[in-house]
Amino acid sequence: MVSKSAVSSEFPALEQALKQFFGYDQFRHYQRPAIEALLQQRDTLVVMPTGGGKSLCYQLPALLKLGVTVVVSPLIALMQDQVETLQDNGIAATFLNSSLSLNEVRSREAALLAGETKLVYVAPERLFGGNFLPLLRQAEQRHGIAAFAIDEAHCVSEWGHDFRPEYRQLGFLRQQFAQVPLMALTATATDRVRRDIMEQLQLREPEVFVASFNRPNLFYDVRPKQRQPYSQLLAQVKQLDGSGIIYCLSRRRVDEVAFRLQQDGIPALPYHAGLSDEERRTHQTRFIRDDVRVMVATVAFGMGIDKPDVRFVIHYDLSRSLESYYQESGRAGRDGEAAVCSLYLGYGDIATVDYLIGQKPDPQEQRIARQQLRQMLDYAESPVCRRRVQLSYFGEWDAPENCQACDNCLNPPPMEEWTVEAQKFLSCIARCEQHSGGRNFGMTHIIDVLRGSTKQQIKKWRHDQISTHGIGKDRSVEDWRALGRSLLHQRLVAESDDGYGVLMLTPSSWQVLKGQLPVKVAVPKAQNKGGDRQAADTSQTLSPQAEQLLTQLRQLRKQLADRQAVPPYVVFPESSLRQMAQARPQTLDAFAQISGVGRQKLSQYGQTFTDVIRGFCEVNGLDSQPLPVSSSGGDTLGPPPVTDTHLTTLRYYQKGMTPAEIAADRGLRLSTVTDHLARLLENGHPINLDALVAPERQGAIRAAIATVGTTASLREIRQQLGESYDYNEIRLVRSAVARSSS
Ligand code: ADP
Ligand code: ZN
Fold it and tell me: Which residues pair with residue 245 across a beta bridge?
């Protein structure tokens, strides 16, 4: 938690500038310190997840500093988008890229030289090609260059997911413009890529800001694909509101799903590399402008678009890796409002992906891809918090145990001992093999035998005559599949890697069969329809009247946007509309209080919007409402609440037990118990810190926190302190600091 006092510093007017230019009341985590660093001419690296608010970190300084800020951005569509949004806030921004006519380029360059431009977006190839560098030199002499901002900075790294050789030349900027500070920005989660960025761009003693990768507004769930997955998908899309992306693995599937959705009355368009450039561009624009609700796409779609109000991302097929999944699903909810990320897990798809991996020529590549697939499945099949699995993959170990916003946390699957079932399953594999001259069979076949099927295929192999035929009638196909998956996942059975996925026993299978190894599985949930409803509950629910007004405001926004040929969110983000719908501001003064309403927006749209709101109030006999508590970011919310498990730990603690004793007694990890105690501390429960962390160590930890800032991660604090400090004590002291400064 950033408290106001902890961040007040030599730039007290920053909040004012934020409201004036962008209409926001508060900075998000890391924005202020990153902005301050840039204002102090420091090189900086800003690592924030998608939607974290990176752009503001260079846009606000650009408005406060003399000279032009040069933004290097790899994607034309993205540039255009950002520039439109800025211009709509009355900010002198422009871009230069290959989509412009020569005349247009000339006039923009002239404006740049005349000092009329505050922000100029360029593609890296333009930076080094033609006359741009000499132009910059002139601009530097006349009005100065405020900063270079390198967006999507991971493109310099071959280890990233989007390497672009042109980015390699950017280190040159550091040498050529020694006086100009450089800010690199990325959403990449891995350490390796971050190091690459600092090296390749030759950053000078950079200040590094790494925000948490947690995206609290996203609801995650995983849905086992049912026999009719399309119907399952359609039902979900019908339940959801707003725009969404549906990712599929193949072009064929994209076309098919888009077509079927259209037939079923859902405005949807396909997007994949098989379409012409023109088609892709049109489809993308129609999606961004809310002319169609759903984009069905291969993963090629999304890199280039910045639509902040995507309300759901459904992976109809698996992702290649957990990192890809995180980035792709992360395209939902960039505006901070609630959004849903669903992954459909089809057993057949795993075999398909695996088969495709098997086609790769390089065995090393295959190995990496298999490992990534396995991690993806670990995620999909895990009975623990989805967020925790993702964050721990990125090295954030201190995520809470229960996030309250994923399927597993809202509806924890109980673990059950299924040793007998596992024995039946494995012995069925053994019997089929013996009975067919050493031949192995896939999961569907094994389950058919267990359930006593008399299908042609079973008769053909005479598997209706073996002893395991029909011994599993008491369980459903889904149950057996879940068990089979879990056995694979726990490596208690192996699967051939030829794309057929036949099952084979391993030495550990025999341990299970001999009764030496118990088997536990997360009991499959009955298909719960509750997921979406629960997800919706995590956002603020509006009264029916507010919903009604919101609909009108959305229509107005769409009209205004179409008139200017910009996407609706350029006019106002969703969060602003929601606030208007709740507060019903009827005067310009009241309207100016809405988050997202800056000076320019007020004069441009204030009248039109308040007219509509007044009309609505008159018709319905309503008044204005006081503004709801700020909904921006979540930074201003208190600490996460304590739950039963924390209180249980508190009871143990009050009996005088040490954290280690509590952990042992409750069968929890020490880090978990520490987490509980820290949470209790943050919430003001009587935990005596001095008894847990020696005062002199506390002193050192407090000093480190003061140096790296209260928003720093545990890892950063520990880097400051050195190896002799452990995360548990740092976690506790950080909570005490947070408590005292809130
Ligand atoms: P990123 O580039 O990190 O993915 P953006 O810069 O596009 O994220 O910001 C995401 C959204 O958050 C945008 O709609 C932006 O206007 C909004 N935003 C940024 N900073 C703030 C803030 N301090 N308060 C409220 N909204 C903000
Ligand atoms: Zn969770």
Answer: 295, 313
Query: Which stretch of DSSP H or E encloses residue 266?
Result: none
- Order of strands, sheet of 294-297, starting from the edge strand that comes earlier in the sequence: 218-224, 339-345, 310-315, 243-247, 294-297, 268-271
Q: Which domains does the chain have, with CATH numbers?
A: 14-210 (3.40.50.300), 218-410 (3.40.50.300), 415-522 (1.10.10.10), 544-628 (1.10.150.80), 644-741 (1.10.10)
What is the DSSP code (8-state) at residue 143? T
Distance 593 CA to ligand 1 centre (A): 18
Which ligand gives the minimal distance to the CA of 409? 2
CA distances from 248 to 245, 291, 301, 337 (A): 10, 22, 11, 25
Question: Strands 415-417 and 520-522, how do they pair?
Answer: antiparallel
427 in Cβ contact with 468 (< 8 Å) = yes
Helices 599-620, 544-564: axis angle to 10 degrees equals 140
Nearest of 56, 88, 19, 92 to residue 597 by alpha carbon:
19
CA dist 353 and 369 (Å) reads: 10
The whole-angstrom separation of Cα 155 and Cα 95 is 20
Joined together, the tokens standing for residue 12 give: 């007290």
Distance 713 CA to ligand 1 centre (A): 21
Alpha-carbon separation of residue 329 from 51, 246, 273, 341, 390 (angstroms): 12, 10, 20, 6, 12
Give me ligand 1 centre to Cα 55, in Å: 7
State the closest ligand 1 atom to the C-alpha of 632, by its place in the atom list counted from 1.
Answer: 25
**Mutation pick for ligand 1 pocket among 19, 28, 306 (CB with most ligand atoms within 8 Å):** 28
pLDDT tens-digit profile of 374-408?
778 878 877 778 998 888 777 776 777 788 899 98
Residue 102: count other Cβ atoms within 10 Å of its Cβ: 7
Under 8 Å between Cβ of 413 and 523:
yes
Residues with CB under 6 A from ligand 1: 24, 26-28, 31, 48, 50-56, 306, 308, 334-336, 573, 632-633
Distances (CA, A) of 441 to 33, 262, 351, 451: 59, 39, 14, 15
For the CA of 406, the nearest ligand: 2
Q: How far is the CA of 386 from the centre of ligand 2 (A)?
A: 5
Residue nearest to atom 20 of ligand 1 (CA): 53
CA of 43 to the centre of ligand 2 (A): 36
CA distances from 41 to 32, 54, 139, 255, 324 (A): 14, 18, 18, 50, 34
- In this structure, the residue with its CA closest to atom 27 of ligand 1 is 53
The rounded Å distance from CA 331 to ligand 1 centre is 13
pLDDT higher than threshold 80 for residue 571: yes
* Closest-lying ligand 1 atom to the alpha carbon of residue 54: 3
Instruction: Return the ligand 1 atom nearest residue 50 CA.
Output: 4
The predicted model gives 363-372 an average pLDDT of 79
Range from 54-68, 149-163, 322-336, 468-482 carrying the lowest mean pLDDT: 149-163
**In whole angstroms, what is the distance from residue 707 CA to residue 709 CA?**
6
CA of 49, closest atom in ligand 1: 3
Atom of ligand 1 nearest to the CA of 595: 25
Rounded CA-CA distance 290/332 in Å is 15
- CA 280, distance to chain mean position in Å, is 24
Predicted TM-score of the model (pTM): 0.61
Distance 429 CA to ligand 2 centre (A): 35
Q: Is the pLDDT of residue 429 over 50?
A: yes
The pLDDT of residue 575: 86
- CA 200, 206, 212, 218 torsion-angle sign: negative
Residue 83 CA to residue 80 CA, distance in Å, equals: 5
Helix axes 727-741, 714-721, angle to 10 degrees: 110
Of the bound ligands, which one is closest to the alpha carbon of residue 216?
2
The model's confidence at residue 540, banded by pLDDT at 50, 70 and 90, is low
